[in-house]
Design a protein that fits this description.
Helix 1 packs antiparallel against helix 2 (about 40-70) and helix 1 packs parallel to helix 3. This protein is rod-shaped. By secondary structure, it is mainly α. It is built from 3 helices and no strands.
Amino acid sequence: METTTDTQQLSALIERQWNILSALRVLALQQVDCLGAEDGEMLLSMIARKQPLIEELLLIQRQLGPYRGQDPEQRTWQDDSARACCQAMQASCENLHQEIVRLESMALGELEMNRNAVAAQLQDCRDATLATSAYTADTVLSESSLDLTNS
């Protein structure tokens, strides 16, 4: 049987998880906005700001590991409201996680579209360069011919 202190620690971990997921959600929304505005510098800043949050979230997930194997009905809570609050917070964490995954997927789709557009522009530039080179080479060849006849 676990003590009330264990459930208080569980609640604290879930609250920290919720705080981090909330911050990641805000950054994911800003990331989508940056992609729409094609602001690469701001996008890199978003990614840099997300990294420590993701690392902390992974740490919390490891700390929550021992609780996953426990029977929730066997936990000793300070009172029923503390248990209900923790359950609601965990459900909110799951919703935040799903929303972040959706936003990240949307951002990835936007990045892929931007990448494909840039690739098409680069291909157009290459084609134009090749065409220019072909015309230039043709002109150079016609202007540099030598007259080797006996005149």
